[in-house]
Specification:
- The protein is α/β, with parallel strands linked by helices.
- The protein has a domain at 3-166: Aldolase class I (TIM Barrel).
- It has seven helices and ten strands.
- The protein has helices spanning 59-62, 68-76, 94-105, 150-159, 173-184, 200-217, 225-230, and strands at 3-7, 16-20, 30-35, 63-67, 82-86, 110-115, 130-133, 162-168, 191-195, 220-221.
- An eight-stranded mixed beta sheet has the order 2-3-5-6-7-8-9-10.
- Helix 2 crosses helix 3 (94-105).
- The longest helix has 18 residues, at 200-217.
- 42% of the residues are buried.
- The model has no long low-confidence stretch (mean pLDDT 96).
- Pathway: Purine metabolism; 7-cyano-7-deazaguanine biosynthesis.
- S-adenosyl-L-methionine binds at residues 45-47, 88, 134-136.
- InterPro entries: 7-CO-7-deazaguanine_synth-like, Aldolase_TIM, rSAM, rSAM_sf.
- Its cofactor is Mg(2+); S-adenosyl-L-methionine; [4Fe-4S] cluster.
Length: 236
């Protein structure tokens, strides 16, 4: 029986909850979120650092292990049948995820995976309906870490199941977006740009010029709907 390392909520249970997808091409879709722990990157603006930053957060208090059967039961207890597996970096546990995904797909559930694009889909390649790939730009602060993996990005691009979401902080970031897309064989119609920010004011200010850039470049635009509705809170 496989065990998953998941984020722990304040009440002691796993961070599996119902909300609406807040970002990307599925924004607004009712979804059940399964938040896994552990990440191979260290983004300075990460809003889920409690899933990996053990210098700032206590690992035992922030994470827990559950079986795939326990995870499936938690998903079944919630209404949305679009399941978003997020993190952390979910594909670090791709093998452990297979039984969960296979069991729930047989019951008609749909799956999205949020990933940073440095780890390939592996055994999940044909099981996930939509990969939301978010390559990290230089402003993420991942010095010394492999934040861009062109071969992995090309694999996702060739799958036809991936969208590529870039977090943009400044207009100068657009040049790097173009370079990453060229290296990864990513067509502009599969690119989504989203402003970096954890407040409505910042998202609105950055969103104005970013939406205009999307119109020029042929990219999609996404805000962070959950931040606009609930602020920077967990479990929503």
């Amino acid at each position: 029986m496989e065990r998953l390392i998941v984020a722990r909520m304040a009440d002691g249970g796993p961070e599996i909850f119902a909300s609406v997808q807040g970002e990307g091409v599925s924004m607004g879709v009712p979804s059940t979120f399964v938040r896994l722990a552990i990440c191979n990157l260290r983004c300075r603006w990460c809003d889920t650092a409690y899933t990996w930053d053990w210098q700032r957060f206590d690992r035992a208090a922030s994470t827990m292990e559950i079986t795939e059967e326990e995870a499936a039961a938690s998903v079944r207890a919630l209404p949305p049948r679009n399941v978003v597996i997020t993190g952390g970096e979910p594909l670090l546990q791709r093998r452990q995820l297979v039984p969960l995904v296979e069991a729930l797909r047989a019951e008609g559930y749909r799956f999205e995976v949020e990933t940073n694009g440095t780890v390939g889909p592996g055994p999940l390649a044909e099981l996930i309906d939509q990969f939301n790939v978010s390559p990290k730009l230089a402003h993420s602060g991942n010095e010394g870490l492999r934040r861009i993996a062109p071969a992995v990005l090309r694999e996702f691009a060739a799958s036809g199941r991936a969208w590529f979401k870039f977090v943009v902080a400044e207009p100068g970031d657009l040049e790097e977006v173009r370079a990453v897309c060229a290296a990864g064989g990513i067509p502009p119609e599969r690119v989504v740009l989203m402003p970096e920010g954890t407040s409505a004011a910042v998202l609105t200010a950055r969103g104005r010029w970013l939406a205009e850039a999307c119109a020029r470049e042929g990219y999609r635009f996404s805000t962070r709907l959950h931040i606009l509705l609930w602020g920077d809170r967990r479990g929503v």
